[in-house]
């Protein structure tokens, strides 16, 4: 499936984000590792992702990536509600972040 989207987002718990910032690499949390890829979202999917996985969390960081930096390992796959989500099969680099929301 070819999806035209220039940016994707990742929701981080505070401690996940701090570890990513310190190590400058992110290979995924427990859910990502169990799934075999890092879960990302489009702008319209962020609210649903937060509601489903992070509702009890108080301090979240949402970061934005350009898909051009991820395209070599970014796949769009059908997931929740039959929607196509961006899945990254690799390790994210901190210097790929274009914005922290």
State the helicity in percent bands: 25-40%
Mean pLDDT: 94
At CATH level 2, the architecture is Alpha-Beta Barrel
Structural class category = alpha+beta
Which regions have little confidence, pLDDT < 50, spanning 5+ residues? Answer: none
Strand order of the largest sheet: 1-4-8
Please tell me the total number of domains.
1
Number of strands: 8
Q: Tell me the number of helical segments per DSSP (H or I, 4 or more residues long).
A: 4
Q: Major sheet: size, sense and barrel closure?
A: 3 strands, antiparallel
Q: Beta-strand level of the residues, as a percent range?
A: 25-35%
- CATH fold label: ADP-ribosylation fold
Per CATH, the class reads: Alpha Beta
Q: Strand-and-helix sequence, N→C?
A: EHEHEHEHEEEE
Radius of gyration: 13 Å
Keywords:
single chain; 101 residues; alpha+beta; ADP-ribosylation fold
Structure explained in plain terms:
By secondary structure, the chain is an alpha+beta fold. It has one domain (7-100): ADP-ribosylation fold. It has helices at 14-23, 30-35, 46-53, 67-70, and strands spanning 7-13, 25-26, 38-39, 60-66, 74-78, 84-88, 92-93, 97-100. A 3-stranded antiparallel sheet has the order 1-4-8. A 3-stranded antiparallel sheet has the order 3-6-5. A two-stranded antiparallel sheet has the order 2-7. The chain is globular. The model has no long low-confidence stretch (mean pLDDT 94).
Q: How does the SSE layout of this entry go?
A:
Layout: E1 7-13, H1 14-23, E2 25-26, H2 30-35, E3 38-39, H3 46-53, E4 60-66, H4 67-70, E5 74-78, E6 84-88, E7 92-93, E8 97-100
Antiparallel strand pairs: 1-4, 2-7, 3-6, 4-8, 5-6
């Amino acid at each position: 499936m070819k999806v035209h989207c220039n940016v994707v987002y990742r929701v981080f718990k505070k401690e996940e984000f701090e570890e990513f910032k310190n190590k400058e690499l992110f290979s995924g949390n427990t859910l990502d590792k169990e799934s075999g890829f890092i879960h990302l979202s489009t702008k319209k999917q962020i609210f649903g992702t937060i509601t489903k996985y992070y509702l009890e969390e108080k301090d979240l960081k949402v970061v934005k990536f350009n898909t051009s930096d991820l395209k070599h390992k970014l796949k769009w796959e059908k997931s929740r509600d039959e929607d196509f989500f961006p899945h990254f099969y690799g390790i994210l680099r901190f210097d790929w972040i274009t914005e922290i929301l």
